[in-house]
Amino acid sequence: KGRRSHTGSVGNTRSSPVSRDAFNSAEREVTEIREVNRKSVPRNSLESAEYIKVITGLLNAKDFRDRISGIKQLLSDAESNPDLVIGNIVKIFDAFKSRLHDSNSKVNLVALETMHKMIPLLRDNLSPIINMLIPAIVDNNLNSKNPGIYAAATNVVQALSQHVDNYLLLQPFCTKAQFLNGKAKQDMTEKLADIVMELYQRKPHATEQKVLVVLWHLLGNMTNSGSLPGAGGNIRTATAKLSKALFAQMGQNLLNQAASQPPHIKKSLEELLDMQI
């Protein structure tokens, strides 16, 4: 059985011209790009398994140059054959996710920049892997001292919010806003405020149920100066943004619910709602 031209593009032998002509004999009218796309679609599960073996082998390679090659190959496949990637998304991204926080900063950066380009191609098809993807993107990168990596991770989070159903992002973003530290906690809290504005009208109950837990956590642990014990950095502005977003959607009901919290939480909320941001 001859190898597909697709796997040839990542280092294996290509199909002979004869086999390509035979495969396309009935389709002389199609464009050259369409022809390439057609040939690289796996025609059975055996070829699909072969592709997974090749791409994950590159993504997990010891040599950082091979890992970068695998990342670039994955982007090419997502562009030319999204169905190939989507059909095997869990297995592929189980390998790819580690590249998003690779110990080699070059690999780390290429992976984040590639993820940014793949999100508009894959969109809601990312849903099966969103819970493993978000920690890989934000946990280390949003607290990175490397400005390039921090900026790239910020772009990826923004692309997720823009191209993926925000309901899929609600729980993982809440988790990160609650449990991360430092700049990452601030950034994810501000991003959660954006999700509230976009999602509340469509999913009011779920938004309240999940986001109020985060808000009470932030208000309950914040000191008068706006810092959180052990968190590093000032969370006051981000918490004010989240408070105002919820108040814009919930109105007086937000204050009513705060009344059932400890008094200092309600007091902090009222102060933040008056704060200019």
Automatic annotation (TrEMBL):
Q: What is this protein called?
A: Protein FAM179B-like protein
Segments passing through the bilayer: none
The region called Disordered is annotated at 1-29
Q: Which organism is it from?
A: Equus caballus
Q: Where is the TOG domain?
A: 38-277
User: In what ranges is there compositional bias, type Polar residues?
Assistant: 7-18
Among InterPro entries, the record links this protein to: ARM-like (IPR011989), ARM-type_fold (IPR016024), TOG (IPR034085)
